[in-house]
Design goal:
This protein has 347 residues and is of the alpha/beta class. The protein has 2 domains: 6-153 and 338-346, Rossmann fold, CATH 3.40.50; 172-326, Rossmann fold, CATH 3.40.50. It has helices at 17-31, 47-55, 93-99, 105-119, 130-139, 185-194, 197-200, 217-229, 245-250, 267-274, 285-292, 305-315, 319-326, 335-346; strands at 6-8, 13-14, 35-38, 60-64, 124-127, 146-148, 172-176, 204-208, 234-238, 254-257, 279-282, 297-300. The two termini are 25 Å apart.
Length: 347
């Protein structure tokens, strides 16, 4: 096991250089791998990629990209800091400096040059979505160096559809994930608040998530006020374990992913599809790619409670609508198929 420490989150540099030029170099010399696959560089340091090239120049270097950290210094979200959290469609040193006034445009220019100089050493980048590939291609990474491999899922049998009581509609909705401003939980709660009274009597929302207490007080107050107002309509269950996902999804008619940022390839989408559960998701980023383009769910205008409320009402309006969307769900690739896709890159 190798462990280092991130000393510079702006340039993703290791805090302890000795770990790179001594410990990691020793590890490479001892095992002499022909392929080194970095599933991330954060908390370890981009210098590790250069060390592989310096120590084993013939080794193949593969890097998986999970978000837009190299492009965006705002936690890789491509969302402008501030209460409005405006979506960012592209980066430039001048624009980035406006987001972080404590740094100059020159800082961001040099940051980009440095990260790209490291990325030039990479043979292949893996991305779980085409959307992320397009973002990095527009940023300057050659598209021919990038490969899309979806996140593999365990092979499971989709559970039977939830049995409805007499007169009941497909109105059981669920959210899975972190409770923070980027995940759009507040937008989702506002959407349920806007539902017509007749629809409110037919639907329920289960929230499976945690970490609300770690958010700003303003966001906590907003969510808690909405939860209090919707206490008859919404149940906050708290955190869950990954092995519980199948059971929780078997009690769900529709899963909602209301994220307010681009996302890449949210695992919850693949988990829901793996269990035969349709999605309602924001119409941006990897969510649009996985949901809209496949027809395996409904979409709404991102950050818009009215649009989401309309989608929820549509979802609960007809059993035939639910059946039509469910019939469009394709089984995600398995873990084995995902592994085979990676092996093709290695040999």
């Amino acid at each position: 096991m190798f462990h280092t420490h991130m000393g510079d989150f702006f340039l993703f540099q290791s805090g302890y250089k000795q770990h790179i030029w001594k410990d990691f170099r020793g590890l490479l010399k001892r095992y002499r791998p022909t392929v080194v696959h970095f599933h991330h560089y954060i908390h370890m340091g981009l210098e590790m990629i250069r060390e592989v090239k310096n120590t084993l120049p013939d080794a193949r270097i593969v890097v998986t990209l999970h978000e837009y950290l190299a492009i965006c210094a705002n936690n890789g979200q491509m969302v402008k800091p501030g209460k409005q959290m405006k979506l960012c469609y592209k980066s430039s040193p001048a624009d980035c400096a406006r987001c972080f006034p404590e740094r100059s445009a020159s800082d961001f220019f040099l940051r980009e040059k440095y990260i790209k100089s490291i990325f030039e050493l990479v043979d292949t980048f893996v991305s779980p979505s085409h959307f992320l590939i397009e973002r990095y291609s527009a940023w300057g990474i050659p598209k021919e160096k990038m490969v899309m491999i979806e996140n593999g899922q365990p092979e499971v049998d989709a559970p039977p559809a939830r049995v409805l009581a007499d007169g009941e509609v497909r109105g059981r909705f669920a959210f899975f994930g972190q409770i923070n401003p980027y995940k759009g939980v507040d937008v989702m709660l506002e959407a349920f608040k806007l539902l017509p009274e007749k629809v409110k009597q037919q639907v329920h929302l289960d929230i499976h998530g945690a970490n609300l207490e770690h958010q700003t007080q303003e966001f906590q107050d907003k969510v808690n006020d909405l939860l209090d107002e919707l206490s008859d309509l919404v149940t906050l269950h708290g955190p869950y374990e990954s092995h519980e996902m199948g059971t929780l999804l078997s009690q769900t008619d529709w899963a909602i992913i209301p994220s307010s940022w681009w996302e890449n390839s949210p695992m919850v989408i693949q988990e829901a599809f793996n269990h035969g559960v349709p999605m309602i998701g924001s119409d941006i980023g990897g969510m649009a790619e996985k949901i809209i383009q496949t027809g395996a769910g409904l979409s709404f205008r991102a950050r818009n409670p009215i649009s989401l409320s309309q989608a929820i009402e549509e979802a609960a309006s007809s059993e035939n609508k639910w059946k039509s969307v469910v019939s469009s769900i394709s089984k995600p690739i398995s873990i084995k198929e995902c592994a085979i896709g990676h092996l093709k890159l290695y040999f």
